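Q: I have two molecules that I believe assemble together. Could you output structure tokens for the complex as a whole instead of separate predictions?
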Amino acid sequence: MISNAKSNYKMRKLKNRLFHGVILLSTLFGVIILVVLLTDILKSGLDRLSIDFLKSFPSRFPEKAGIKSALAGSLWVILLTALFAFPIGVGTAVYLEEYAKKSWFSTLLQLNISNLAGVPSIVYGLLGLSVFVRLLGFGRSILSGALTLALLILPVIIVASQEAIKSVPESLKHGAYALGASKWQVIRTIVIPTAMPGILTGTILAISRALGEAAPLIMVGAMGYVAFLPQGIVDSYTTLPIQIFNWTSRPQEAFHELASAGIIILLVLLLSVNASAILLRNKFQKRM
Amino acid sequence: MIELSKVRKTRKFKEFLIVILLKLIASISILTTIGIIFSLAQETISFFSVVSLKEFFTSTKWTPTLEPRNFGILPLLTGTMMIAVGSSIISLPLGLGSAIYLSEYAPKRARSILKPMLEILAGIPSIVYGFFALTVITPAIQKILPQTEVFNVASASIAVGIMIIPMVASLSEDAMMAIPDSIRQGAYALGSTKMEVALKVVLPGCVSSIAAAFVLAISRAIGETMIVAIAAGANSQLTLNPLKSVQTMTGFMVNISLGDIQHGSIEYKTVFAVGTLLFMITLAMNIISKIIVKRFGRYQL
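A: Yes, here they are, computed for all two components at once.
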């Protein structure tokens, strides 16, 4: 009897250990893939990386090609996207958290936002194509692309801002009310500044998603080959992910190396955007 | 005194204006949905005035740009479903495994290293995974199975699966973290091993949230675009062979948009018709995942 229980116990312990190994491996799988992916891209792209690569336009000749126009296009699109999405996102969050009473409108709004977050990005591209490119006549411009991406990342910014606003302590607000502040004054001077670290983190994460997005921009007409710098928001453009896509779709090995180099720049850009999120957040937190 | 009431009045008016302004801003997200539905519906209706519903759903040929034109969505649909199934084989077990490890087994230090790693993995743009699929995964598959085509379902599925692992892991982990610790302690007190606690106590307690996470993950795989556009190919054939090239719904939309499609042309309408189907499928799955959570609740202990 006892020996039976003992062996049973041993079995269970063994099973547990095996299971531990299996799930540890499945966690490490992601990490290993990350390492393989990064080393592969560094290995094939690092040689192509140079100042000239940053300063040249794309070209039929791989040795002359660069990402000048893609980099400029990405910056234009991203800045404009942030400019549109940030105030709308924060405004919506403020409305939902501070003003909206439990009504059909606020329920619909909340439901709508969570559904929008699940819409594939390429469908936003179709929206942009028919509304911004055709209906409003913005054409295949930076403006159309930025507006499309702004709508795409809006749900992320709204949800993150809502969380941040929710976490502002009631006591702070009550203090301001007690001093005679109006609702908007409380929001402007207490709620938004206090929630700012969270809002910024969410916004910057959303921005970095937009920075890597290619599918909706292809739908609204970002071009694969642009040999000039955009001068304004109605110019045509290309972005880094689209330039990378263009190079990846060519069969020649040399273009794949260019794609790798482009990916390195894209990842560095994403990394610095995220690092700036952390820095900004820390700065705001200190001030509070 | 008069001054004060005047101040109050302008202040009240300002507050009123702000509420209106914020409400207008908030409506933009509803306008977005309306915009999506209208723009999809408009072109799709005009598409189906040219192509019959019967042809769209039963024909097995998809050649919308070549004469004779065929508009059978089945090849694209099977392509999409193969990617969804293939990526799920990778992402669901590995994501769930990671979640169990992170929530139940991992020591604090391991967690603090592994979690940011998964977050980095989640932050990598899909175009990068597409490149990875084409230049690393495909050659690796070809080494084992030489008959594999350059563009193939297997490679794209693996890449989509890898991309979705962090999402499955983080949603499932959140679900498991929501199980109160007292329940675990109770099971330990009865002499359970860690595995028994994880699989027989924690997991059954949050199975509905995990099921919802799985549905969301599959929906995301269906909507994934750049990986399949790069690695799965543009060959809209009806096949179930994962080593062959197929076209998915999203892949078709990207491929055709790379050329300059004219507004009002049948190609233009076709993109919207495919987009409508994609939108409906993903919307249905998102709703299903919400129903699962709502119906079956969070704790079923």
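A: One point stands out. Chain B touches chain A through 85 residues (CB under 8 Å).
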